[in-house]
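Observation: inputs received (chain + AHG).
Thought: call the complex predictor directly.
Action: predict_structure
Action Input:
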Amino acid sequence: MISLTRHILDRQQSHPDHTGALSAMMTHIALCGKLIARDLNQAGLSGLLGTTGTTNVHGEQVRTLDERANRTFVDVFEESDVVRVVVSEEMEEPFAIKRAQGSGTYALFLDPLDGSSNVDVNAPLGSIFSIHRVGASGSILKAGREQVVGGYVLYGASTLLVYTCGDGVHQFTLDSAVGEFFLSGSGIHIPPRGKICSVNTGNQSKWPGAMRKVVEHFQMGGDETGPSRTARYSGCLVADVHRILWKGGLYLYPGEVKKPAGKLRLMYEAAPLSFVVEQAGGLGSTGEERILSLQPRMPHQCVPLIIGSREDVEFVEQCLQGGSR
Ligand code: AHG
Ligand code: MN
Ligand code: MN
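Observation:
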């Protein structure tokens, strides 16, 4: 039984140049995961369901649990002296951590609660995190390939923490009786091709023609790419991408004709999930560019996302770029 605490300390010892900052940040993230898992577990009994009546920077309805999960991360990281600034889906402006203003060299990007429309129906949810070093000029907008850590917590039948710091993908499962995450998967490798296609086909009429054709192709199947794909879609990006991490296949959230950048957010959805998926041998793409190569312009910027098994993603890229089908 290797606990997350032990795993992080071991890694720190084998890299003598590590300052302990990574351990401190991962410990804080794990604590947030445990606190949020507890809230989700009791939400129906503690009056935490429903919405707050406000909208966030993306114009989406904020749920009580979105706000609460965001508060949990802020409260925990206010005790950090290494994270200088927190950027969250639920906060329009970057949030400065007072305690870390002199010492902090990291920026934390967060989707505190992903898939929050699942809250009221007891379906899976997630938290997504991404850590960057603050640049010499104080800049926090860096390409995804420069992430120090990327990962997520998945609140499903059990609570999982999956992360990478560039040395493969590690998965931990929460033993809630003990209150500790234990290693349950290391060196995870995504199959090069898969059978699953995870996409909200309810949006089909809004996509550009080339994207409609690709998804139609997956639905009809029967040629060199094999039989038609199995559809899986939970409405929680973390849960859908996690399924693909283990089973292979594709998750797509395309841009729309009237909204070319789509719905998902680069810094705290697409980039950290692409870091995890690439570390497992897969790929994250906009259809034109590798997600991890994009230079962000704004903290809350959206991007189209095609992510999963490498050959499947490359196939979609070729179709969209007018290559062979
Ligand atoms: P969030 O709850 O953080 O706003 O994210 C919701 C995202 C993602 O989790 C999911 O895959 C997608 O939105 C679902 O959107 P649709 O309902 O448009 O399919
Ligand atoms: Mn989300
Ligand atoms: Mn969210």
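Thought: report the result.
Final Answer: The pocket of manganese (II) ion (ligand 3) is lined by residues 66, 89, 111, 113-114, 116 (CB under 6 Å). The mean pLDDT is 94.
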